[in-house]
Amino acid sequence: MNRFENKIALVTGSTQGIGAACAVRLASEGADIILNGRKFDERAEGLISQITAMGRRATFVAADVSATQNVVNLVNDAIKVYGSIDILVNNAGVEKNHNFLDVTEDEYDFVMDTNLKGIFFGIQAFVKYCVSYNKPGVVVNMSSVHEEIIFPHFAAYCASKGGLKMLTRNLATELAPFNVRINNVAPGAISTPINHALIENAELLEKVLKNIPMKKLGKPEDVAAVVAFLASADAEYVTGSTYFVDGGLTYHYEEQ
Ligand SMILES: NC(=O)c1ccc[n+]([C@@H]2O[C@H](COP(=O)([O-])OP(=O)(O)OC[C@H]3O[C@@H](n4cnc5c(N)ncnc54)[C@H](O)[C@@H]3O)[C@@H](O)[C@H]2O)c1
Fold first, then answer.
1. How does the average pLDDT of the chain come out, rounded?
2. Domain that holds residue 100
3. Which of the listed residues 89, 194, 216 should we mutate to test ligand 1's pocket, taking the one with most ligand atoms within 8 A of CB?
4. Residue 255 belongs to a domain
5. Contact 121, 72 (CB under 8 A)
6. Is the pLDDT of residue 63 over 70?
7. How many whole angstroms from 114 Cα to the centroid of ligand 1?
8. Site to substitute for ligand 1 among 25, 157, 192, most atoms within 8 A of C-beta
């Protein structure tokens, strides 16, 4: 199935985890890919080889998306690589675990600048491009179940993803006249390096799995499949939504 023939996608934070899976999935369905991370490394090199071997083009553009000018430059540089961008996947994200009373301003900024501010201005740069060339666009934001459910000791993370929920709801209306769709994907517990501590800690993992009706962690590929749906024409009437990929975590209820 080539849902992304002649389409070009920029995926932020795509050298590992969910972002890498999104890049590979979109390429497997025909997209050319702009990979991104803070700096080029062997993971980026490996992904470029993998995507090229699939018959698609892939280029890495380095940028720290937590700074506004960097993310604006990233979008504009990415457009220059293959002459266009059709799909923006805002995947890069960070989390910091701290008791609320101990959170420093730097820690707050680290989370909010990456997970919300960078995304805000990245979308703005992308939509300015779409509007000036009168072309449609698709945005998929990597949110989290924590745009909806609480996570004690991760207040800044929850605030950033909660903000992303409202950003998407708001922009769906504001950008519809420009033919730009925008949706969130909200992963639950996915097996990626961001969850290293959880995966290594059997006791904690057991507690987490108790809250997941499907009793297993998700895979990056599970998330990428939903991103691909939302980025594709199959979702042409879908905007302003959040799709949960969480094994039932968010709305589970059990009497025990
Ligand atoms: N893994 C999960 O269980 C889970 C659950 C919910 C939401 N998410 C979200 O999914 C997204 C991806 O998470 P993941 O699990 O793959 O994490 P990860 O840590 O494995 O990957 C995140 C990637 O983003 C990159 N990145 C971080 N900050 C960046 C910056 N400022 N500029 C450029 N690149 C940057 C990292 O280098 C890394 O490659 C994040 O937004 C995260 O909040 C993950």
1. 97
2. 8-244
3. 194
4. no
5. yes
6. yes
7. 10
8. 192
